[in-house]
From TrEMBL:
This is Probable RNA 2'-phosphotransferase. The keyword Transferase applies. The lineage of its organism: Archaea, Methanobacteriati, Methanobacteriota, Archaeoglobi, Archaeoglobales. One of its GO terms (molecular function) is NAD+ poly-ADP-ribosyltransferase activity. The gene is kptA. GO terms for biological process: tRNA splicing, via endonucleolytic cleavage and ligation.
Length: 214
């Protein structure tokens, strides 16, 4: 986790210096508060809006001002500007702000449809996992686990990055999204690195070899 700072020219960023101009901006949130606030916001927007009386529409949007009030009650030092700092500095594109509303772009366990997402046009997608899990998925397919959608990576490198969170020996499954799409499976673009989908049957999945560094 990194601190959030503000660059006068390029806005909020994470780390010591702005990666666009190398300016060391004003400290906005230290990394401890970034983690606390980020976890709370993502928890509400992905898993438990009802717990705090927030209404979420079928596309995952909640009212930004109402969320800000909930956050301020939880953390007295927090306000809507710090929420925006979390959103705009997030390198993984977890959140979206528009027309007075906010949502998580992916990771939902609550029932959302995300009908306003752009459909992904990738011919192939990737899923990083462990060796043991990979062989099981080749038999039963890839299904959402504790989430509404399957989360796929747009590149092999991103698939490896995800898999390394769970195993030191990543295995990459390739999904033939082009064929799956013709079979009626819908793919939604969450951001440039993540695509969401329904369950992927095993006939559209295969293991690919990863070149290992010597």
């Amino acid at each position: 986790m990194e601190d959030i700072r503000f660059c006068p020219e390029h806005g909020y960023y994470r780390g010591e210096r702005c990666d666009r101009c190398n300016h060391k901006g004003e400290l906005i949130l230290d990394k401890v508060k970034v983690e606390k606030l980020g976890r709370f916001i993502s928890g509400i927007l992905r898993h438990f809006p009802d717990r705090f009386g927030l209404e979420m529409d079928e596309n995952g949007w909640v009212d930004f001002e109402k969320l800000s009030k909930v956050v301020s009650r939880k953390y007295r030092w927090a306000n809507k500007w710090l929420i925006k700092a979390i959103v705009y500095s997030d390198k993984k594109g977890r959140y979206e702000l528009s027309d007075g509303k906010i949502r998580a772009r992916y990771g939902h366990s609550v029932d959302v449809k995300l009908n306003d997402y752009e459909e992904a046009e990738n011919d192939v997608l990737y899923y990083g996992t462990s060796e043991e899990e990979a062989h099981r998925l080749l038999e039963i397919g890839i299904k959402p686990v504790n989430q509404k959608f399957v989360h796929l990576s747009t590149t092999i490198d991103k698939g490896i990055e995800v898999a390394l969170l769970r195993t030191d020996e990543p295995i990459i499954l390739m999904v033939d999204a082009k064929k799956a799409r013709t079979a009626g499976i819908k793919f939604l673009k969450a951001n440039n690195h993540i695509v969401l989908s329904e369950e992927i049957p095993p006939e559209f999945i295969k293991i690919i070899e990863i070149e290992k560094e010597e």
